[in-house]
TrEMBL record:
Top-level taxon of origin: Bacteria
Annotated keywords: Hydrolase
InterPro entries to which the protein is assigned, alphabetical: HAD-like_sf (IPR036412), HAD_sf (IPR023214), PGP-like_dom2 (IPR023198), S-2-haloacid_dehalogenase (IPR051540)
Protein name in UniProt: HAD hydrolase
Keyword Secreted: no
Length: 242
């Protein structure tokens, strides 16, 4: 009998279980409309992205940091000449994002329900604690997870710690997510397996090159394939599981 190589599953949340980036894109588009007197859309978008990257060590990831970065960008490009109504509009857009209903991606619930009775499921997500807790509660998926880890950022140390505490170590953990930078590469670096499920929209900050022929990396278009991948891994006698 082949000993199981995967005994615990980690899942990203935003754009893996539910829609997220589309709301940021929509809000950014309306923000650029507000600032149309101060530059073209491409230039303004680039300025916003630069401010967001600069602010990540201060504000972290999530909607609140995004709103603060929009306000900072607006003040910079306008040299502080914006009408108060514009800033009020930015705040209103942030509140709208924070209150937006959670939209599950296709086949997420069915997949998690099928897996939850067989493996401990761990939600591993980064961002604002309050907002991520809100989205998890609104998703109705909370009862399917054995544990929830909301972290400020994702690194190989994060995955090593979580899979050691919640499973049998990173070597027997498998991480599922849409972001190569946050979900896949650091999980692989920790020694875990990883399933990359690309999303149609990915924030520029998360763009990195995909590893070539990594023996613990699997790429799929649908989350329902995760169960098949686990069966392939656990049913293999080989060290290389692709």
């Amino acid at each position: 009998m082949v000993q199981a190589k995967v005994t615990a599953l980690g899942f990203d949340a935003d754009d893996t279980l539910w829609q997220n980036e589309c709301f940021f894109r929509d809000t950014e588009g309306r923000f650029l409309d507000l600032l149309s007197d101060f530059g073209d859309r491409a230039t303004l978008s680039g300025r916003l992205f630069a401010v967001e990257k600069r602010n990540i060590p201060v504000y972290g990831f999530g909607i609140k940091g995004f709103v603060l970065s929009m306000m900072e960008t607006a003040l910079e490009v306008s040299a502080g000449r914006l009408a108060p109504s514009v800033m009020a509009g930015v705040l209103a857009m942030g509140r709208e994002m924070l209150n937006h209903p959670v939209e599950l991606l296709p086949e997420v619930r069915e997949t998690l329900e099928a897996l939850s009775g067989r493996y401990p499921l761990i939600l591993i997500t980064k961002g604002d604690l309050f907002d991520q807790e809100r989205k998890l509660a609104a998703s109705g998926l909370g009862e399917l997870f054995h544990a929830v880890e909301i972290v400020s950022d994702k690194s190989s140390a994060t995955y090593a710690r979580v899979f050691a505490a919640r499973g049998d170590g990173p070597e027997k953990g498998l991480m599922v997510g849409n972001s190569l930078r946050s979900d896949i590469l650091p999980a692989l670096a920790a020694g875990a397996f990883a399933v990359h499920i690309p999303h149609d929209l990915t924030w520029s900050y998360e763009h990195v090159d995909e590893p070539v022929d990594h023996p613990r990396l699997f790429i799929e278009q649908h989350i329902r394939k995760v169960a098949e991948i686990i069966e392939r891994i656990n049913g293999s006698d080989d060290d290389l599981t692709r």
